[in-house]
Amino acid sequence: MRQTTPRSAPAGFTLVELLIVVVILAILAAVVIPVANNVSNEAEQSSFATDVSIFATAYELYFQVNDDWPPDSGSGAIPSGIDKYLRASDWTKGTPLGGVWDSEKDSFGITSAFGVHFMGVTPKPTAYMTQLDALFDDGDLNTGVFQQIANDRFYYIVRE
Questions:
Q1: Residue 96: is its pLDDT beyond 70?
Q2: pLDDT tens across 25-34, in order?
Q3: Is there a contact between 70 and 112 (Cβ–Cβ < 8 Å)?
Q4: Which residues make Cβ contacts (< 8 Å) with residue 103, sequence separation at least 6?
Q5: How far is CA 118 from CA 76, 89, 102, in A?
Q6: Alpha carbon distance, N-terminus to C-terminus of the chain
Q7: Residues 108-125: pLDDT tens digits?
Q8: What is the pLDDT of residues 66-76, one digit of tens each?
């Protein structure tokens, strides 16, 4: 008489087990992604605010030495002479928000300003830029030292 050994089930996971794992991973992703995105936004805004602080100091130093504000420059181009007061690479590398740095003098009704010109790059949403404005002053992009001066331009006003 021949003995048969009982068949064992093939090794592996059942469909239900796999679905449970996928659902758990989806729930974790739903929790982690918004937190990571918020941290990224905060880091971006903090880096931008640091750059603005450095550039504002450079503008003030330029004015003290030259009795005038840095000249208007093309978007992405460093204003002539300001490189004595800051590293040119900090200006020309672009902003942490995307877009490029730009200097304005005697335009848009402002004596001297610098800021981000998004130049064809989709600007950050208004709510995002309003949060950024709150780091500098009043959280209103129409007033104060940080303003939206055109659809794709957000500037720190050094002198009105």
A1: yes
A2: 888 877 777 6
A3: yes
A4: 70, 71, 72, 73, 78, 79, 82, 113, 114
A5: 10, 18, 10
A6: 104
A7: 999 999 999 998 888 889
A8: 999 999 999 99
Higher pLDDT among residues 36 and 23, named by residue:
23
**At 94, which amino acid appears?**
G
Q: What 3-state class would DSSP assign to 69? A: coil
The string of DSSP letters for 80-116 reads: TTGGGTS-HHHHHT--TTSSEEEEEEEETTEEEEEEE
Per DSSP, 159 falls in state: E
Structure tokens at 147: 């303003």
User: pTM here?
Assistant: 0.76
Q: Quick one: tokens of 24?
A: 């758990």
Place of tokens 């209103």: 140
